[in-house]
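User: Continuing from earlier, I have the next pair ready.

Assistant: Great, send them over.

User: Here they are, in order.

Assistant: Folding the first of the pair now:
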Amino acid sequence: MTNKFAIRVKELRLENNLTQKELADNFGFNRSTISDWETRGREPSYDLLIDVANFFDVSLDYLLGRTDI
């Protein structure tokens, strides 16, 4: 994954009017995890990546920056 993931997660979170804490609460983990994704380049596991894509109703290709659709 590249920095595109960080950009897409942040864009989707803001488009859905969610704070980092609110998004983290949906997955049952700490706000710092979302912050790490958005600013520190940390990457979720494959299973969690699928959950994030499903949560925002986007494809994995979109989430990873492989497509803009």
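And the other member of the pair:
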Amino acid sequence: MKKILLFTAVLVLLAAAVRAQNPSSTATQTTNLNLTDAIELTFVANNSATGAAVNFAFNTVNDYANGLESAPIQMRVRSNKMFNLSVKSSNAYFTYSGTTSPAPQMYVGSVLYFKMTQNNTGGWSWVNNRYDYIDHIDWTFLYYGVNGGDQNFTIVYRATPGFTFPAGTYTTDVIYTATQL
């Protein structure tokens, strides 16, 4: 009988332990991510929106006859939406610095060209490995770049001033714009 009572007591204690719950408490907090449209276009070499100057030194007759090509220039787009890229020069004519007066008028669109030698944006461009002119009117050269944090492309310039213009320094800014769709 003692064994039966002891066995019953153990079963009762075991059942009570199984039904017992540890005390607990719960707290909930809502976390919001307030995202805005974001886009950035930079030159990879200096991680800046302003690239280093591209200098073309025309020193020989062959330079004038054949034109000169720049070193490749890599750029990066970071965007949380698809994007297009456009290009233009800051003015229709190069700014002249030299001794000739009046200052010669060199039209940018007939002298300065560019092409994309690398396109890792996921977008479509018709200047892939094909030169096209840069003008003072903004025009789109890359369509539907894919959103991401490291969308790279590489540009090469070509300058062909010919023999018409006198010695001096001819300057223009090339402006790239990344626009979200």
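Worth noting for the second one:
Helices lie at 2-19, 61-66. The first helix runs from residue 2 to 19.
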